[in-house]
Structure formats: structure tokens, C-alpha cells
Amino acid sequence: MTESYGEYSLEPLPKKVRSGRYSVNVIISRIVGGERHTVRFSAEDGIHYILEIEAAKEAINLGRNLIDRGLVGF
């Protein structure tokens, strides 16, 4: 479920934790000068989701917010 956002590619990466719920993680990629740059972010808010799709949607939102705020360094 990779999504394009401007010049970036967002790939949600929900991870199942011990409780059986899913944490929010996103891989943000961008091609700069013909080279692919990638960084992974994890939400550290302590919120975990029952459904994997919920965590994936939140991961996309996290990626968008990080890009919009200029927190992705490439």
C-alpha cells in the first residue's frame, strides 16, 4: 500500500507488538540526483491499533505530517 505524496513515496510498515495490536511505522523515500534516499520513522506516542489497516493509515498520515513540517532531511 505504497502512496505517493509530492516527490516522496510513503510505505506504511505496521508492526505487531506483544499485545497483538499494531504499532505505526512508515518508510519515506525520495529519489534525489538519481539516487534513492530512504528513512524510517516510528510513532512514539504509545498508541497501538487493533487492526493492521488502521495502523497503516496512521503511518501514511505520520509520513505526510513529517514531510509537511520539513522534518524529512532529504
Could you characterize what this model shows?
- This protein has 74 residues and is α+β, with helices and mostly antiparallel strands.
- The protein has one domain (3-68): Double Stranded RNA Binding Domain (2-Layer Sandwich).
- 23% of the residues lie in helices and 38% in strands.
- It has one helix and six strands, in the order E-E-E-E-E-E-H.
- The chain has one helix at 52-68; strands spanning 3-5, 8-12, 15-16, 22-23, 25-32, 35-42.
- The strands form two sheets. It has a four-stranded antiparallel beta sheet. A two-stranded antiparallel ribbon has the order 3-4.
- Strand 5 and strand 6 form a beta hairpin.
Describe the secondary-structure layout.
Elements: E1 3-5, E2 8-12, E3 15-16, E4 22-23, E5 25-32, E6 35-42, H1 52-68
Antiparallel strand pairs: 1-2, 2-5, 3-4, 5-6
Keywords for this structure?
74 residues, two-stranded antiparallel sheet, 1 helix, 6 strands
Span between N and C termini?
Answer: 22 Å
Number of helical stretches of at least 4 residues: 1
Q: What is the number of beta strands? A: 6
- Top CATH class: Alpha Beta
Strand count, sense and barrel status of the largest sheet are: 4 strands, antiparallel
Helix and strand content put the structural class at alpha+beta
The H/E string reads EEEEEEH
Radius of gyration: 13 Å
CATH topology: Double Stranded RNA Binding Domain
What is the arithmetic mean of pLDDT?
Answer: 97
In percent, how much strand structure appears in the residues?
Answer: 35-45%
Rough outline? elongated
Q: Which consecutive residue ranges, at least 5 long each, have pLDDT under 50?
A: none
Strand ordering within the main sheet: 1-2-5-6
Number of domains: 1
Helicity level: 10-25%
